[in-house]
Amino acid sequence: MRKLKLIWDFRGPDALKIAQHHEIHLKEYITLEKTELNITGFEQLNDMHSIAFMVVNETEMKPIRDALKPHRGQVYSE
Q1: What is the pLDDT of residues 54-65, one digit of tens each?
Q2: In contact, 56 and 37? CB cutoff 8 Å
Q3: Does a structural domain hold residue 29?
Q4: Which residues partner with 72 through β-bridges?
Q5: Contacts of 7 (CB under 8 A, 6+ apart)
Q6: What is the residue range of 35's domain?
Q7: Is the dihedral of CA 49, 19, 2, 77 positive or negative?
Q8: pTM of this structure
Q9: Is 35 within a domain?
Q10: What total number of domains does the chain contain?
Q11: Parallel, antiparallel or unpaired: strands 49-57 and 72-75
């Protein structure tokens, strides 16, 4: 089964802190909704751009996408 990485982009001088905080909410969502996967994280791409992400199975993607409204997505490879 294909895994998809849902991505939220944050820009500006506080982007890293916002991405770190957003990951907390993604973990809360996983706990509440009992999703199949429990993969989240954040990355600093540069001083002004960070991301938070959540990995989901393709079968779960549409309802999660509609509920959480990620900015973009891509196929996840470990």
Answers
A1: 999 999 999 999
A2: yes
A3: yes
A4: 7
A5: 51, 52, 53, 70, 71, 72, 73, 74
A6: 3-50+60-72
A7: positive
A8: 0.95
A9: yes
A10: 1
A11: unpaired
Residue 49: exposed, middle, or buried by beta-carbon count in 10 A (0-12, 13-18, 19+)? middle
Q: Rounded to an integer, what distance in angstroms lies between the CA atom of residue 5 and that of residue 13?
A: 24
Those residues with Cβ within 8 angstroms of residue 24's Cβ, 6 or more apart along the chain or in another chain:
none
Q: How many residues does the chain have?
A: 78
3 state SS of 49: strand
The pLDDT, as a whole number, for residue 63 is 97
Give the mean pLDDT of 4-28. 98
| Residues 17, 37: Cα–Cα separation, whole Å | 24
User: What pLDDT, on a 0 to 100 scale, did the predictor assign at position 78?
Assistant: 80
Domain contains 55? no
pLDDT one-digit tens code per residue, 24-77: 999 999 999 999 999 999 999 999 999 999 999 999 999 999 999 999 999 999
Query: Is residue 78 assigned to a domain?
Result: no
